[in-house]
Structure formats: C-alpha cells, structure tokens
Design brief:
With about 240 residues, the protein is of the alpha+beta class. It has a single domain, classed as Mog1/PsbP, alpha/beta/alpha sandwich (Protein Transport Mog1p, Chain A). The strands form two sheets. Strands 4-5-6-10-9-8-7 form a seven-stranded antiparallel β-sheet, with helices on both faces. It has a four-stranded antiparallel β-sheet with strand order 1-2-3-11. Helix 1 packs antiparallel against helix 2 and helix 1 packs antiparallel against helix 5.
Length: about 240
C-alpha cells in the first residue's frame, strides 16, 4: 500500500519553494530554496493559524488571506477522502482491511492543509502557505527557457525525493508562466505525475505578498483532468491578502 495522499499532494507545498526561488525575474539559489523551506517549518513553531468558512469565503489568519469558495465546490472533510475520484481506483484494489487502514491514515491528512475543497464531481483543490523571502513577479514578466528548466528541475527533484520509495513519480512539465489575473500576478504551472494510482495532472498557482506565498493546486478526475478548473481561476480572482 502506498503512503497517504500527503506524500503525493502535500509534498507539493515543499516543492513549490524551489519554484519560488526565482524571484524578481532572476534565477534564485539553492540557499533561497532552503530558507523558504525552513521558513515553512519554523512557522509551525510560531502562533498557530486559524481558519473558517463564512459567507461563502474561506478566511485564514496568520497569515491573513481569503478567497471565495468557487461555484460547484465545497469544503472537504476527512469523510470525503474516498469521494475524490483519483483515489477510487487505488482504493478498489485493496482488501477491506487495508482499505480501512489506508483511509484512516490518509483522511487525516486533509486537515494538514489550510483548505481542501471537493467539487461536485470529485475533483480536488488545496490551499497552503509558506514564508516568502522576497519573491515577486512583475506584471508581464516572461520566464525564459533556462529559468523554466532550472525551476522545474528543482521542483521535480523535491517531489521525487519526498515520494515513498515504492511509488516514485514519473514527472513531466506541461507549462510554466507568469500570468496576470486582473491586478493579481501569479506564477502558474502545470505538470503531470504518473504514480501507482494513475496519471494526475496538477495545476498550481503561487500568489505572493511581501511576507508570504500561498499556493492553490488543482487535480481533476482521471477521465476529465480539467474538471472544475474554472474554480481555480475563481479563487485567484477573488483572492486577497489582508
């Protein structure tokens, strides 16, 4: 049995620190990557964050940010773990005992993110945060091929290292660009991950404040990788650092 979902989704937040190391339109260094990762770990030693869903919004404190829960999505609970479409095939292959054990272990991981949302058709979105060490992308900035390659190699290395020994992903970058959503500028990336549970297409955006970076990641259904992808854009357009 593979390790819980945190090993294939939650590790993404760590890997994104490699992506954010190319701030201000220049190539970052490994030191910046380490500092960002360390900042996330140290954040757990500070005052604990709080979060709530209210009036159609997800509201997070420490750091302070909010976004509107998009149409067709709702907050997920641990009871929803078996309802995510990308889990169903893997769970069906397990005995009832191993299935129950897997669900107990993996469902608890839902609570380790700032937010997890489930779509009406079983797609997944997650929000998470880390400390920002001065990363900023100006509106209209264009990554060159060398920058994409360096950033992607760091991300791929981090994701592969974090994966369980029996389920190392086969990774492929689909796209990576700086994108404007109105007045909000984000770093947006798509990559494909081939793991035991199947092929998963990840779409991730990074939103930056002077102090923090928040990542929003989407995974659709195996038969429809873009299911609910418009919800990701809804979140970005409604997102606010406060």
């Amino acid at each position: 049995m593979t390790e819980p979902e945190r090993d294939t989704t939650g590790r993404w937040s760590f890997a994104l620190h490699a992506l954010t190391s190319s701030g201000r339109g220049t190539l970052g260094t490994v030191l910046v990557t380490v500092l960002l990762a360390t900042g996330l770990l140290l954040a757990g030693c500070a005052s604990l964050p709080s979060k709530e869903y209210r009036g159609g919004l997800f509201i997070h404190r420490n750091p302070n940010y909010s976004f509107r829960v998009p149409t067709g999505w709702r907050p997920a609970t641990t009871a929803d773990y078996e309802s995510f479409e990308f889990n169903k095939h893997a769970l069906q292959a397990l005995t009832s005992q191993r299935r129950a054990e897997y669900v107990r272990q993996a469902a608890a991981e839902v609570n380790k993110y700032d937010s997890v949302l489930i779509s009406s058709r079983g797609s997944w979105m997650q929000a998470d945060h880390a400390v920002n060490q001065g990363v900023h992308y100006a509106s209209g900035y264009q990554l060159n091929a060398q920058q994409r390659d360096v950033i992607w190699q760091r991300i791929a290395t981090a994701l592969t290292s974090a994966a369980p020994p029996t389920d190392k992903p086969r990774l492929a970058l689909v796209s990576m660009d700086v994108v404007d959503y109105g007045s909000t500028t984000v770093l947006k990336m798509k990559h494909r991950s081939e793991v035991q549970r199947g092929s998963m297409l990840w779409t991730t955006v990074g939103l930056f404040s002077p102090s923090n970076v928040v990542t929003i990641s989407h995974v659709g259904r195996p038969d429809d990788p873009d299911d609910g992808i418009s919800g990701l854009e809804e979140i970005v357009r409604s997102f606010r650092f406060e």
